[in-house]
Each structure stands twice: as C-alpha cells, then as structure tokens.
Amino acid sequence: MTGGEISRLARGTLLPGFSGSTVPRWLRDELEQGLGGVTVFALNGNVPSPEGLAGLTAEMRKSGDPFVTIDEEGGDVTRLGGHLTGSPYPGNAALGAVDDPELTRRVYRSLGAELAEVGVNLNFAPSVDVNTAADNPVIGTRSFGPDAALVARHAAAAVAGTQEAGVAACAKHFPGHGATVEDSHLGVPIVDADLALLDRRELVPFRAAIEAGTRAVMTGHLNLPQITHGVPATLSPEAITGLLRERLGHQGVIVTDALDMRGASGAIGIPEASVRALIAGADLLCLGPHEHADTVRATFAAIDEAVRTGRLAPERLADAAERTRRLKEWLAGHGAARVDRAAGLDAARRALRVSGALPGWDGSPLVVGLASTGNIAVGPTPWGLAPWASDAVHAAGTVEEAPGLLERAKGRGLVIVLRDAHRHSGQRALTTALLTARPDAVVVEMGLPVWRPEAAVHLATYGAAQANAQAAAELLGLAGPGGAGA
C-alpha cells in the first residue's frame, strides 16, 4: 500500500467540525483529498436554519462525497432548528412512556425525512441506553426508559424509521451509558457490570438495533473495569472488536463519540485517542465541535506515524474504508420519506401523565418556571410554558422567592414548571414552599418525574421539547389545539 493510499484512507476516517454557515477553504481542500465527512453543530453556527443547512451541505458535496452527520435525537437534544425553538418531536422518554413502537417508528421516520431534506445522511441517534441511574447527568430523558426490553423494542423502531427515510441510524452510546452518574464530557464514567449483567441489561437494546439493521453504532467513553480494565470503551479492543463485532455481530460502521470529550482524550490528546480508537476497531472518528483544521492535520499526522511505526496496520484502515464504502452504497440506494410533524405532537399528547384532578381556572393562571441547568449534550435549548403565558415568571429556585411569587399569584391559579427536580434541590425546596401556601397549584415536570410532591396535582411531560410543552399547554388550557392561545 503506497503512502498516498494510506493518506487517503486515514483522511477517510475523520469527521471534524467547522465554524460558520459557509464551507471554509481548508474543509474544501480536505474533502477533495478524501476527508470522511463532517459533523455539523448548531453551536458552531452551522445550522442558521434548515434552508441554510441545506445550502451548506450542497456546497460541501461539490468538493467530495462526505458523510454529513448530526446529533438530532428530537426531544431535548436537537440541532435542526429545534435549538432555537425547541423540537417539534418529543424525545425518547416520552416515546417510551407511550410505548407504541409504531408511533416511535413514525416519529423517527419524519425526523429522518427532515434530515434528508437538508442533506444530512448519518444521524447520531437513537440513544439506546437503558437509564437505570435516576441521577444520570447526561442521559435522562434521552433514554426510552429503565427497562431493557422496552428500550430494545423502541430502539428497533427508531432505527427502522430513520432508515426508511434514507438516513443511516447510529445507535449509541455503546456499550450503554444509562447506569452512570458521571458525564463522559467531563471524565470517564464507570459502568460496574460484568458480562452477564451487560448481556441482560445494556446490550439488549444494541442487539435489537443491530437486528433491525442499524447501519452504525457509536461508542461511549465508558470504563467497564471487568471488560475494558480501565480503558474507555472507545479505545478498547475488548469493547469494540470483542463485544460489538464478535459477540453482538455488528458488521456496520462503528463511530466514536466526540473525541474532544475528557472521557476519551483528557489524558492523551485527540490525535493519540484517534489512533487508539482505530486500533480498537472504530471506523469513523467524530473529533468534536471545536476541532477544525489544526486538529485534522495533527490527527492525520498521528495516524500516519502509527502506520509507519507498525502500531496501526494498514489493513485496519482498509477495513474501515470498506465499511464506510458499503454505507455510502446503501445511502445511494435509499430514497426519502414524507415529513409528518403531526406524529410529534401526537406522541407528546399521548405521553402526558396526570396525577390528581386538574383545576378549572377562572382566568389564566400564573406560570412560574424554575431554573434548571442542562447538560452539555442538551445545550441551551429553550424550554418551558412561557410561550403560552404572557406574564410567565422565571424563578431562580430559592425559597426566598416564595413570598413574592405567592403575592403575584393572588386570585388566580398557579402552575409551577420544573425540569428534573430530583437533580435540583432548589427546585424542590421552592416548590414545597409554594405548595404549602397554595395546595391547589399544579406542578408540571418537564424532565424525568422521579420526584413528586405529596398531594399536589402533578403533570409529567417526559421531556422539554416544544412538542411536549405545547401538549401540556393544551391540557392546562393555556393553548387551544395546534398551539393557539386559549
């Protein structure tokens, strides 16, 4: 194999990010030399609008045949315009609460159709993690639920729906991020499970996704001491080749989660993490949102050096290239589906769960939204019921705010909007104080409904997407069907 062939194969594994809504010169040059593709990020300004993204992807394809990848899960993790308004599709927790796999398939088919329209051909979804840790800081509503069998049937449906739209699905985060209490953006979470436990819990949805034909699987930066012996799964041959390829039989593409995350590269840097991931069996390397031309050059040099010194076999690069070639061949043979946004609102409405009897208000209630820190994967996506309440109040979540809020709510109903209150002591304390004085208030939980105040009327949406919020607003009488104010 010549040096030029190795160089092209090495470039073909890389998925960098870039800044702005136009194709930079360095990216054009790399695409012409065989760059594998790009990952578009809303935070980089790559998605000014769906129309803007469509123009951007078309421009990129004048210089090559790249994979254009994105993190578009629907729900709380949304990039395709939803980062500005909230997603029109509820996330996995709501779909799991409904537990209608055909509806999940319908939602993901429509989501895939929207991605296909703007030129995205590989979606880093669905998340098929079994969320068994209630305090999980990074998965939460991104999971279909805590039951492996439920997650498995919806994983298969999500894969099928996405790929019916001509977009490749990518089940994540292998071998399962649901039992962790640490964010892999910030460290290396531990999954303390032996192979027997993995087989009956974490691996069940991945098997279902693979049997449903998922074209790709994404690795997570997870330490499984009994399997990977302290090495993150992304860099572990035991996880990628042993578990995913050999035990589960996945023959499609394997993509790494973003290698800028501390769980992968914090101690060794992105170029070295890239080499180790390739050695372990990965085919495509997601570098991260801020890893542009300099990182591409440094990573390419590290891969080239690893081949020259014998650490990385050229055959491993050729194997990755063959898998990505087959994926592009599959993409070329699949057409698009019809966008069906009604599926999103239908799912959000069916996911609502009410405990207690909703009051009949004389006039509009005061809506109080309590502050909630998101996680890095979710990002600064808008949420809450303020769009349906003209005088909605935002509270920081301290008990000291209670008297002022109660004064403002005199003579009218009160709606308290939370998000993952089980993870925010301030939300719980302020809610308890408000309910002590106003037991007639309605509590709306827009995250996971783990914490529920006693005796209060409680509405769980299982997500904070725009669709979830609209469905809740309709039920509370803040909006008529279709979103208009009541």
How do the helices and strands line up, and which of them pair or pack?
Layout: H1 3-11, E1 14-16, H2 25-32, E2 37-39, H3 50-60, E3 67-70, H4 82-85, H5 92-98, H6 101-117, E4 122-123, H7 148-164, E5 168-174, H8 195-200, H9 203-211, E6 216-219, H10 237-247, E7 253-256, H11 262-265, H12 270-280, E8 285-288, H13 293-308, H14 314-332, H15 342-351, E9 353-355, E10 366-370, E11 393-395, H16 402-408, E12 414-418, H17 425-437, E13 442-445, E14 457-460, H18 466-475
Parallel strand pairs: 1-8, 2-3, 3-4, 4-5, 5-6, 6-7, 10-11, 10-12, 12-13, 13-14
Antiparallel strand pairs: 9-14
Helix pairs in contact: 1-13, 5-15, 6-7, 7-9, 12-13, 15-18, 16-17
**What's the alpha carbon Rg, rounded to whole Å?**
23 Å
Could you tell me how far the N terminus lies from the C terminus, measured between alpha carbons in angstroms? 69 Å
Quickly count the helices.
18
> Can you tell me the residue ranges where pLDDT is under 50 for at least 5 consecutive residues?
none
List keywords for this structure.
single chain, 486 residues, alpha/beta, six-stranded parallel sheet, six-stranded mixed sheet, 18 helices
3D structure, described in words:
By secondary structure, the protein is of the alpha/beta class. Helices cover 39% and strands 11% of the residues. It contains 18 helices and 14 strands. The protein has helices at residues 3-11, 25-32, 50-60, 82-85, 92-98, 101-117, 148-164, 195-200, 203-211, 237-247, 262-265, 270-280, 293-308, 314-332, 342-351, 402-408, 425-437, 466-475; strands spanning 14-16, 37-39, 67-70, 122-123, 168-174, 216-219, 253-256, 285-288, 353-355, 366-370, 393-395, 414-418, 442-445, 457-460. A 6-stranded parallel beta sheet has the order 2-3-4-5-6-7. A 6-stranded mixed beta sheet has the order 9-14-13-12-10-11, with no helix packed on it. Helix 7 (148-164) links the parallel strand 4 (122-123) and strand 5 (168-174). Helix 1 (3-11) crosses helix 13 (293-308). It starts with a helix and ends in an 11-residue tail after the last helix.
